[in-house]
Amino acid sequence: MTEFVGLPLTIKINPRAKRVLVKLVPGVGLEVVVPRGFDHALVPDILLEKQRWIERTRDILLAEGRDLSGELPDLPNVIDFKAWDRVYQVDYLERSGPVKVIENVARLQVSGPVEDRRSIFEALQIFTAKKAREVLLPRLEFMCRHTGLTYTALRIRRQKTRWGSCSARGTISLNAKLLFLPLELVDHLLLHELCHTRQLNHSKRYWALVASYEPDYLRLEDEVKHGGKYVPRWFT
């Protein structure tokens, strides 16, 4: 069995796993994590039991613009950071050795083994995460001044699904993918996490706090759900 309900299927063995875990992973497809020694012949029956959940989750992720094909995308010729209003033209230079990304005004020169797309994508993701911090940190500070809300630390991560999170200590973690979203959605997500520094939940009080700063939050929350359509496949 190489696919299920039109999704590429991967079975991964995790020695620390105590039970079977079925998940849909952007850029990968359907992934089944099993403990060491698990009988793989049982996987089809497990997938049939979870078929309705898999199909429902698949449709949600596809509607959000997530890629579940499991196929490597082509190398990008253009990178559009909407939150930064910056568009880079990307040039590739075939060279041996590790992949390097050099920024020159509105162009990026990527040197390395061009056929190794995974390594190039990884280098571009690292570059994006670096730029995300440069762009999002000042924007977060701006939102703090605008709202009077505060935080203790900022972390930039390369997560598969979550746009951001806030810890009980006030540490805000933001997904580097935010750089691809329109600024209006980025600002809303920053506000979303800043409000969690006051209400670490999604209670009525929390949403009332959000609404006090952004009355149009329901529309923005709905648009954020489909924010994956702005993220290029090489970053999913």
TrEMBL record:
This is Zinc protease. Keywords: Hydrolase, Protease. Residues 20-225 form the YgjP-like metallopeptidase domain. The keyword Protease applies. One of its GO terms (biological process) is proteolysis. It comes from the Bacteria. GO terms for molecular function: peptidase activity. InterPro entries: UTP_pyrophosphatase-like, YgjP-like_metallopeptidase.
